[in-house]
Design brief:
This protein has about 200 residues and is of the alpha+beta class. It is built from 3 helices and 4 strands. The radius of gyration is 52 Å and the shape is rod-shaped.
């Protein structure tokens, strides 16, 4: 058998060949788009998992930071409380035991002296270079001069005070001819003890 003549016109053949190539390229492009979409979906899924993991890690780290910040806050509050307690201890330990002085005043007054006011002034260095002295003043009343004299003498002989001086006395008339003696005493005692 021999070859047969081609009855299709050349233009039709070229158009058919073009359509076939367009269909092939269209199929290739569709396959390429599908492959890109699949790759994109896979990458997004992997990225979503990575983002989720990163978010979970960030949440965990933030929670740990919050716990540490809470512990730091509690530690700061505790530190401030300890510092306040230390300041009180330091302040108290630097001063004499005032209960001794107050007990001495109560004992020596023997019910004849009424102490209305007492003041303590900061310690000052003595001129001889000795220990610092606290100045202690008392104001009060008594019925007679002899009660005041006895009170001052007993304070001087107690050994607590290095100096006891009556600074001022004033007679105040009372009812039915009685008098009350108002007095002010200036005294000092050394930081480490009396004389």
């Amino acid at each position: 058998m021999g070859s047969y003549p081609d009855l299709f016109p050349k233009g039709l053949r070229a158009a058919r060949s073009r359509r076939r190539r367009i269909r092939q390229w269209g199929a290739v492009l569709v396959l390429e788009v599908l492959m890109l979409a699949a790759a994109s979906i896979i990458l997004r899924a992997d990225r979503v998992d990575s983002v989720g993991e990163v978010r979970a890690t960030i949440k965990s780290t933030v929670a740990q930071i919050d716990v540490v910040n809470g512990a730091i806050g509690q530690s700061r509050a505790r530190l401030q409380e300890v510092e306040r307690q230390m300041a009180v201890v330091n302040e108290v330990s630097r001063h004499p035991d005032w209960s001794i002085v107050l007990a001495l005043l109560g004992r020596e007054a023997e019910g004849t002296i009424v102490v209305e006011n007492c003041q303590l002034f900061p310690a000052s260095q003595t001129t001889a270079g000795g220990p610092a002295e606290f100045r202690f003043t008392l104001q009060g009343t008594c019925n007679a001069q002899r009660d005041l004299t006895k009170f001052v003498q007993s304070l001087q002989s107690s050994g607590v005070f290095s100096r006891v001086v009556v600074a001022e006395t004033t007679r105040i008339p009372g009812e039915r001819g009685s008098e009350t003696l108002h007095f002010s005493i200036d005294s000092a005692f050394a930081e480490g003890g009396g004389r």
